[in-house]
Fold this sequence. Notes:
Elements: H1 2-30, H2 34-37, E1 47-52, H3 69-86, E2 90-93, H4 111-126, E3 130-137, E4 148-151, H5 156-175, E5 186-189, H6 193-196, E6 202-209, H7 213-218, H8 222-240
Parallel strand pairs: 1-2, 1-3, 3-6, 4-5
Antiparallel strand pairs: 4-6
Helix pairs in contact: 3-8, 5-8
Amino acid sequence: MIGKIKEYLAKLNKQLLIVLSIVILLLIIKLPNYKVLSIFNSINENTIVVDPGHGGIDGGAGKKNDILEKDINLQVSAKLKKELIVEGFQVIMTREEDVSLENFSNIKGSRYRRDLDARKTIINNNKPLAFISIHCNSSKKTSAKGIKVYYYPESIEGEKLAKSISQSIDENFYKAYMKEENLRTEILTEDFFILRETDYPGVLIEVGFLTNPEENKLLREDEYQRQIARAIKKGILKYLE
Length: 241
């Protein structure tokens, strides 16, 4: 009798294991982007969100068959992530691949608006110490150049973060790395959606002009990108002191 009970339990456990395996497999099949979904709720008290602008169908600034803004944004953001991880932060990237995020928004609106809404949700749900949105600039004037840092005009903490990052870029990037004594980061206020609709301190940084031949060439270089990311990191650290 005991032997039959043991045999029955063994068969039952095997059946439960099979059922559990099927359920897990179905979940994975139904959620092909489960890795991306996990970034919407990964709360940590030491979190910083890095937002590489554009992506996927949205290339941002740049010319066809040339380097596009979305690619530079992602490359600089990835380097910033590494710099911040070394300092002990948990870093959430709104994207780590060449994708747009409109499919992760439930609002009705244009593809562009839904993409921005998804980025806002990632930032707000993770409750970061700060967030950094990385972009590249463009202008009809090919002579236009330089890094610009934007913050929302009504955000006191956003202004503090912008000033701290700007000062760090001037000291650690322009002066120490580029050996440029006269270049200065421009700090500006702007009513950008990502700055206005988020609940946490953040800035949008235009790391250079793709329409400027000199900066276009430099922005492709790994070390140039790394030095920008390092200067941004030092500015964040100063802000958090």
